[in-house]
Amino acid sequence: MTARSALEPIIVDVQRSGRTSLRAIAEELNECGIVTRRGGRWYVSNVRNLLGRLGRKQAGAGR
Predict the structure, then answer these.
(1) Angle between the N-to-C axes of helices 3-16 and 22-31, in degrees from 0 to 180, rounded to the nearest 10
(2) Would you state the torsion angle of the CA atoms of residues 39, 25, 30, 6, taken in this order, to the nearest 10 degrees?
(3) Integer Cα distance of 39 and 62 in angstroms
(4) 33's torsion region: left (phi>0), alpha (psi -120 to 50) or beta?
(5) Distance from C-alpha of 4 to C-alpha of 15, rounded to nearest angstrom
(6) Is 60 exceeded by the pLDDT of residue 4?
(7) Which 3 state secondary structure label does DSSP give 8?
(8) What is d(CA 27, CA 32) in angstroms, rounded to the nearest whole number?
(9) Residue 8 has what pLDDT?
């Protein structure tokens, strides 16, 4: 299992809880102490890239 696929269920849970914006997902990952693969904090751009790699869409996509 890759780190990216390990994050997918976490992302799904965050989105189901109502936190669907890229910023809200990044904040939740940071609050949970989950670091990026380089050991850093999550930002909108990291989350956008991750969701793209997972084939998931965020709320408000396509505006």
Answers:
(1) 110
(2) -50
(3) 30
(4) left
(5) 16
(6) yes
(7) helix
(8) 9
(9) 93
Residue with tokens 């999550």: 42
Specify the residue for token string 């965050």: 14
Torsion angle, alpha carbons of 22, 42, 4, 57, to 10: 10
Map tokens 């992302």 to a residue: 11
Question: What is the residue type of 49?
Answer: N
pLDDT tens-place string over residues 16-62: 999 999 999 999 999 999 999 999 999 999 999 999 998 876 554 44
- Segments in 1-63 forming alpha helices (H): 3-16, 22-31, 44-54
Tokens representing 15?
Answer: 């989105």
One-letter amino acid of 24: A
Q: Distance of alpha carbon 30 from its chain centroid, rounded?
A: 10
pLDDT of residue 38: 93
